[in-house]
Amino acid sequence: MTNLSPLQIERLKYQPKLPSSLENGINHLVLQEGSATEAVADKEEIKNLFKNTYGKPTVTFQTSADSIHSEARNVGVILSGGQAPGGHNVIAGLYDALKQANPNNQLYGFLGGPSGIIDGKYVEFNDQFINDYRNTGGFDIIGSGRTKLETEEQFRDALATCQKLNISAVVIIGGDDSNTNAALLAEWFVANNANIQVIGCPKTIDGDLKNEQIEISFGFDTATKTYAELIGNIERDANSAKKYWHFVKIMGRSASHVALEAALQTQPNITMISEEVEQKKMSLEQVVNYMTDIIVKRANVGKNFGIAVIPEGLIEFIPEMKSMIANLNDIMASLETDPSFLGATTIREKFDIVENRLDAENAKVYASLPALIKGQLLADRDPHGNVQVSKIETEKLLIEMITERLNQLKTQGEFIGKFSAQSHFFGYEGRCAFPSNFDADYCYSLGFNAFALINFGLTGYLSSVRNLTEPASDWVAGGVPLTMMMNMEKRHGEMKPVIKKALVELDGPVFKKLESNREDWAINDRYLFPGAIQYFGPSSVCDITTVTLQLESEAKQLTGAVR
Ligand code: FBP
Q1: Is the pLDDT of residue 561 over 70?
Q2: Is 447's C-beta closer than 6 angstroms to any atom of ligand 1?
Q3: H/E element holding 200?
């Protein structure tokens, strides 16, 4: 590679840390089985759908003095869904383990996400190829995509590609949806005697692929630290100029983990949590009033500035918006081929067509929105038929509605301050950052461990590395059956087996920390300035994990939960 920045050069030399159980090498491991597992809910349905892969035990690895010999084999790897820092290190860890096990092993990377295995588009890795990407952000080593791998035809195509390349195991690096697909593919391969294993790796900056066994998905650490750096910088700017309110929307399609973590790292004046808005059934007006109230209170003590953090998914958690968006999603599906909609020459015409088709209540909600948001709600759907919340400028909607509310209050003599707002969206900035030391180590371990699972003949497992608040040497490597995380949910009107998404728990320690501090943070400026991620320097700065992981681990220890 040419044209490397000084940091790139140094990061390429970084040697990620492994759990001590994996450090003696891939050929010196023993596998220990836990007890048989069950699905998180809807056990009978899941058992029926996954006849061959259901109920397997969790496993952990330990070092062995004996050496095992493994026959040469070929493995394929897929990056699936949104980018998350550390993906390249998962592949590097997988590659290193695979070559350590047997130098004749080969690793193939499928190009552009799951479609690569269907269309037979791939690259073959070698040392130089991998070395150029070690400890770097991004998924550009092979690219990613959002194709859903779920139909019989796709499975047959995937099988044909694997047979052509003599591949006997596939690693899918993805979030809850991609790992649901990994579970389906694993089951299908066994049911069809394909002799191909499938192993998943937990990825997503959103942090919503977690449970008792998976403490955090990779990328969350780096992405939240990146957003926290930016918010901290903005807090300093706001506190210096004292003239703007900054409205910061932060990525995280459904769950608010990212916004919550960034808020705990920076202590802004307002933090909205979508799960709380939904639980309290707050209307859009109530959300606006809640935020306006804090703005007025601060203005009353001469503070016409502040920072508000808003999760990307907020709009979908406000009950009246949720209902309208669900109704709109169905209508948009039917309008895809509608000549009157496709032929509409102005956006107003499109608004009218949509309003006429929405149910009366939903039409009222839609009609009440500013034109900018109405237009964004009509943008293309994702592969699941859902609105792409990253394209909805909720931060601007809130600014507009709050301005209107403050103007009313001003005419009533109840607001004497000034309100001037700036909007920001932090999302793509964090997804491809250089992985923090934590993510670099965690991802490398996940990839290395994925090959250990393959080497022991397992399929339908998610690579798991736990005990993450301790030094890497004490991390616990193993695997969790994917079916253990599944339940039945409605998708496109049908009940489907899916990995259960982890939303913010309102009775959990992380939200409680925000809840017990937010009144203070609203008025008294308790801003924290985390600064940029540090890669070199004291471990107390470079190797720290997230507040979320720390608080959750402390709570588990208090309740004596099994690690
Ligand atoms: P994954 O769930 O695939 O990890 O992606 C999450 C995410 O980064 C969300 O935070 C965001 O809403 C979405 O991807 C944006 O998707 P896209 O990259 O397609 O714009």
Answers
A1: no
A2: no
A3: strand 197-202
Contact residues for 193 (Cβ-Cβ < 8 A; gap 6+): none
Smallest CA separation from ligand 1 atom 14, residue: 82
Confidence of residue 1 (pLDDT cuts 50, 70, 90): low
Ligand 1 centroid to residue 192 C-alpha, Å: 33
172 Cβ closer than 6 Å to some ligand 1 atom: no
Minimal-distance CA residue to ligand 1 atom 18: 82
| Any ligand 1 atom below 6 A from CB of 306 | no
DSSP per-residue codes, 79-98: EBSS--TTHHHHHHHHHHHH
For residue 312, the ligand 1 atom closest to its alpha carbon is 12
Stretch 108-131: mean pLDDT, rounded?
97
| Domains parsed from the chain with CATH numbers | 18-63+71-219+435-499 (3.40.50.450), 221-317+392-426 (3.40.50.460)
Residue-level pLDDT at 383: 72
CA dihedral defined by 544, 545, 551, 555, rounded to 10 degrees?
Answer: -100
Q: Which residues of 230-256 are buried (b: 16+ CB within 10 A; e: fewer)?
A: bbbebbebbeeeeebbbbbbbbbbbbb
How many Cβ atoms sit within 10 Å of the Cβ of residue 102?
16
Which neighbouring-strand residues pair with 499? 486
List 497's β-bridge partners, or say none: 488
**DSSP structure class, residue 29:** E
Of residues 177, 206, 221, 439, which has the active-site annotation?
206
Residue 206 is a catalytic residue: yes
> Among 21-35, 346-360, 525-539, 548-562, where is mean pLDDT lowest?
548-562
Question: Ligand 1: does its nearest atom lie under 6 Å from the Cβ of 175?
Answer: yes
Q: Are 167 and 189 in contact (CB under 8 A)?
A: no
Angle between helix 257-266 and helix 547-559 axes, rounded to 10 deg: 100
Residue-level length of the chain: 563
**Across-strand partners of 201?**
173
**Residue 496 CB: number of other CB atoms within 10 A?**
15
Please give the distance, rounded to the nearest whole angstrom, from the Cα atom of residue 253 to the centre of ligand 1: 6
Asked whether the beta carbons of 217 and 549 are under 8 A apart, the reply is no
